[in-house]
Amino acid sequence: MLIETRPATDPEIAALVTAQQRELREADGGLDGQATETRHDIRYLAVVLDGRAVACGGVQSLDRDTGEIKRMYVRPAYRGRGIARDLLAALEELAFQLGHHTVCLETGTYLPAAIGLYTSCGYAPIPVYGEYVDNPYSVCFAKRLPLAA
């Protein structure tokens, strides 16, 4: 397994983001209203297996100290292999390299596996923020990153 940076314009990133957004709309009955475009202000990572990107996620800077994990997705055929956990750790490292001391994220109440992953990786619930405030299905989490030795 290889985890590598990819530009927002990468076709495999775009395909993964589209699949992620489609799956979210299907899971919540189309009520979340999230955009399907690949955001160019997000720094993306791709998980590559056998030459194919099978998972992605990104970090978007909210402010100097805080990064938001965005568009985290693992293709269904590759779930249950620890890929999401490894990708999350790599995204935290990317956020740290970008100078962030805290990472936050939003997910849906209808995604218990995602909530379980985040809480098992040290994320704690926080109040819903930003564009998610009016979404009754949104739940948000944050984690303080360890300081460099």
From TrEMBL:
Keyword Acyltransferase in annotation: yes
Q: Which domain of life is it from?
A: Bacteria
**Keywords annotated in UniProt:** Acyltransferase, Transferase
All copies of the N-acetyltransferase domain together span 3-146
Q: Does the keyword Membrane apply?
A: no
PANTHER family assigned to the protein according to its UniProt record, in alphabetical order: AMINOALKYLPHOSPHONATE N-ACETYLTRANSFERASE-RELATED (PTHR43877:SF2), AMINOALKYLPHOSPHONATE N-ACETYLTRANSFERASE-RELATED-RELATED (PTHR43877)
What is the recorded name of this protein?
Answer: GNAT family N-acetyltransferase
Q: Which organism is it from?
A: Micromonospora cathayae
Organism classification = Bacteria, Bacillati, Actinomycetota, Actinomycetes, Micromonosporales
